[in-house]
Amino acid sequence: MAEQEFSNTSTQRRGRPREFDRTNALECAMRQFWQHGYETLSMADLTSCLGINPPSLYAAFGSKQAFFLEAIDHYLATRGAYVYAIPSDQRSPRAMLSHLLQRAAEAFSDAAYPAGCFVLASISATYDSYEIEQAIVQRCQQRMSKIDELVALGVQMGELPATTNAEELAQFFVCVLQGMSLQARLGASTSQLQAIVANALQVWPQAARLR
């Protein structure tokens, strides 16, 4: 649905805009964009989901693009923060990476949410704006940088050989995570995703107990 400008007269005819909870609105939008994609979902779909009129939605979020990016940020601050959290009680970088991937396997296949990762699913879509593409790429890179940090720490702590190409190994695990998200959207179960994790971690041998 093309974005429209609404006059004050039109707003008055519709009456006072319905008040809504912004967090609930973002949660609803997150699920809708996640399930259906940015291009497929119209502003009419969003107003119907939220139960508010278009002027209220535009007044609160400005545009479909702005609403989408705010929904992405809502995901990263809520569900995404849970999925990609690095445990602080683990001394082993490999164990921390394993924890991240195992949690992703469970979250990506959780029936309470749309399948996969919202950000990873969004990065493979096409958009009508270069700015929105770059904004999503930036958010994805920030999240995936955690994997870079864990691999680099593995080399630093001696869990991985000093000759390890940390950048290439980190990219491998990023690809694993992206593949898990895609497989989940294709219907893979938690156990199937966990099997992917187990096989992927074989490239990072279990380290000797750290002293």
Automatic annotation (TrEMBL):
Keywords: DNA-binding, Transcription, Transcription regulation
DNA-binding in keyword set: yes
Residues of the DNA-binding region: 42-61
Keyword Transcription: yes
Domain of life: Bacteria
Coiled-coil parts of chain: none
A GO molecular-function annotation: DNA binding
Domain HTH tetR-type: start-end pairs: 19-79
Gene3D superfamilies named in the record: Homeodomain-like, Tetracycline Repressor, domain 2
Classification via PANTHER family: HTH-TYPE TRANSCRIPTIONAL REGULATOR YJDC, TRANSCRIPTIONAL REGULATORY PROTEIN
Protein name in the entry: HTH tetR-type domain-containing protein
Species name: Herpetosiphon geysericola
Lineage of the species this protein comes from: Bacteria, Bacillati, Chloroflexota, Chloroflexia, Herpetosiphonales
